[in-house]
Every structure is written in structure tokens, then in C-alpha cells.
Amino acid sequence: MYKQVHSPGRAGAVRPRRSSLMDKAVRRRRRALFLVFLLAGTAMSSWVTRTPAIRDRLDVSTAQLGLVLFGLSLGSMLGISCSGRLVSRFGTRPVIVWGTWLLIAGMAVICAGALAASVAGVTAGLCLFGAGMGAADVAVNVDGTHVERTGGATTLPALHGCFSLGTVFGAGAGMAATAAGVPVQWHLAAVVLLAAGLLLHAARALPAGTGRIVREERRKGDGAARHPALRKDGRLLLIGAIVLAMALAEGSANDWLPLLMVDGHGMSAASGSLVYAGFAAAMTVGRFGGTYVLDRYGRITVVRASAASGALGLLIVVVSDSPVLAGVAVLFWGLGASLGFPLALSAAGESGPDETARVALVAVIGYVAFLVGPPGLGFLGDHIGLRPAMLVVLVCVACAAFLAPAVDTSARRDADAAVPHQEAPERTRS
User: What are phi and psi of 61, to 5 degrees?
Assistant: First the structure.
């Protein structure tokens, strides 16, 4: 165990007294989390950039492809709804590792489904992919918030920046594969091998026991069950609404942006992938620059500005008939969607006790965007076109700007700092 002391830096932040050995362990752990986020982003964008090829190979309409994508949403909800309990019982490490292995297995099934031109196969693969990503997502964010506290520095934006960097790599490779005419199944098979290698390397640096609640505490009902008012916490629900809106902004691009550019603005498949790569690059820049912007302007201003930028980009994409202008507007969309999700998760973890339960609840609310987004936008897109359908996303992102004050948890941090410190009782860690 370590003793915790209040850092003189960020108000209310808690920083442990660390040895050089602990500093080294935290750095190794942070690098491992960077690789896990990078892996997930690469896998996701590799699938996204090949959606036009998958649609053509399966010979389905836009609405039918939305139903195929529903497999991804359903799997994500199943995974994320179980993740909080799994983390409480086993800790973050096994949930991250086995969830990511499930993601990789789902990608392999997608490869087989694409090779056989099987709608059921691709749908099943997406379900496995989503279940693995959903299960690992809560665990890796809980681990990231723990690293943030242990290291005494803002970490989650950079971690999510690695996800976005992975999407840049994946989108670039997908664009190259599309332009070269590489069959989608062989492209995705190469991604499976790469992801497996990254996971094997990263898993060794993840410590056991983080987020785990010992059996005696589970019997007492520690976690969400011990706090039935958790789902009635107004601030937490508002934070969840921000996560939902910003997840929808990011998820709608991940699901539909290449097709939106192809069908809505007359671009080629390669150009649509290039625009998506620009979106991913803007997300990456926003997230890696997030620490500086956050320290300078604060959470409320950053979330509000992010929502405004995303709304502006979406508005131009919807109303402009110029493919070039729409492509440039996607950069504003990406910058706007970059910071809302990680900053809201950090705020959720700081909003009260039971950090794991709070992050899990907010993440579940955010994942509703992945559940209703793909089929809903696909249905609208089939009837009114993908460009008008994006007005739904625009309205949600604009609402997030008005909800931005909910992410201010400084009052609670100040209250914690005013309480004389007492060493926390030890918890059994495996």
C-alpha cells in the first residue's frame, strides 16, 4: 500500500508518495495502456474504412448495413453492461486482456464472414468485436483514471489520443488497401495479427488488482449496489448526457463518415477514406493537445468549445454542396468530438465515491449512442439521405454545449482537500 497526500498542484488532486521504482512501474503501465488504446483504434478504423467494400461484397442496402452494424452495437452494450461487475470481481487487468482478445477474435470472424460473403458471419463478428471492446473499454478507462491519480497528471485525454492515433494508422492503411484493390478479408487478417502482437506485449505491464473489491466488501454491497442513489445523481446523469452526445458525434463518424462522403457528396471510396483519416487526425490532435488546453481554460470552457466546434462542422457537412468544404468541415467535427468523452469520464470518476461504478454507469449511457446510432442513422439515411440524417447528431452535440457546467467537479475536490487526511484502510489486492 502507499500513503496518499494532497498535491499542491491541481486542486484536490491526490498524489501518492512514490519511489523511483514506483515511477518506473507507472510509466510502464501508462505505456501499456497507450498500446491497448492504439490497438483498439487501429482495429476500429480498419473496419470502418472498408465499410463500402463490405457493403458491396455483402450486396446490402444502407438500411440493411445499419442492421449489420447493430451487431456491433448489441455486442458493445452486452460487454459494457457486464464490465463494471467483472472489474469489481477480478480487477481491470483480466477484463482488459480477455476483452481485447475477444475483440481480436471478432475481427477474425469478420474476415471469415467477408470471405464467405455472409451477412450472418459479419454480423456475428461485429457482435464479438463490440462485446470485447465494450468490456475492455470500462476497464481500461478505470485503469486510466487510477494512473491519472497515481501519477498526479492528466492522462485520459492522451490515452484517448492514442485511440485516435490508432484510427489514423488504421484509416491510412485502409485507404491504401482500398486504392490498391486489396481484398477486405486479407487486409483485416493482417490487422488481426498486428493486434495480437500488440496485446501480448502490453499485457505484461498491467498490474493485477486495480478496481477489484474483496469478497467481504462485495457481501456488504460495495459499489453501485451499495449506493442505490447513484442512478438518481443529477450531476452524474448530466455528465452521462454529455458523454452520449459526444459519443454519438464520434460514433456516427466511425460508422458512416466514409459512406456519407461517398453517397452524400459524390466522392470516391478512396477519397471517403481520406476524409475519415482527416477526421481521425483531428481527433488525435485535439486529444494530445487536450492537457495543455484543459490546464489553461478548464473543463467547462473546453467541453463547451468542443461541442460548438463539432456542431459547426456537422452543420457545414449537412448544408454544403461542396465536397471540398465538407471535407474541411470534418476537421472541425473531429476536433469537437475529441475531448468531450475523456473529460466527461474523468468528471464522472471525480463526482463521488465508487469510481468504478460511476465510470461504468456513464460509459453505459454513452454506449447508448452506439446502440441506437448505427441502425437509427441507417434507417433515416435510407429514407432521407445520410446528410439530413446527421441533423440528429448536430442537435445532440449542440445540447452538450449547454450541459457543460456539469463537468465541473471542483467543489467536491475542494471539499476533499479541506478534510484532514487519514490513511485509507488497506484493501486486499491480488
Answer: -85, 175
Q: Which amino acid is at 95?
A: V
Average of per-residue pLDDT values in the chain: 79
Please give the Cα distance from 164 to 171 (Å, whole number).
10
* pLDDT of the residue at 325: 93
Cell of 101: 482478445
Do 307 and 404 form a contact (C-beta atoms < 8 A)? yes
- For helices 184-202 and 156-180, give the axis angle rounded to 10 degrees: 150
Count the neighbouring beta carbons within 10 Å of the beta carbon of residue 424.
10
Using alpha carbons, select from 154, 155, 152, 210 the residue that is nearest to residue 15. 152
Scan for cell 452535440, then name that residue: 397
Q: Which of 98, 166, 156 is nearest to 345 (CA)?
A: 156
Q: Which residue has the cell 457481501?
A: 219
Angle at 355 between CA 351 and CA 356, to 5 degrees: 145
- Predicted structure pTM score: 0.71
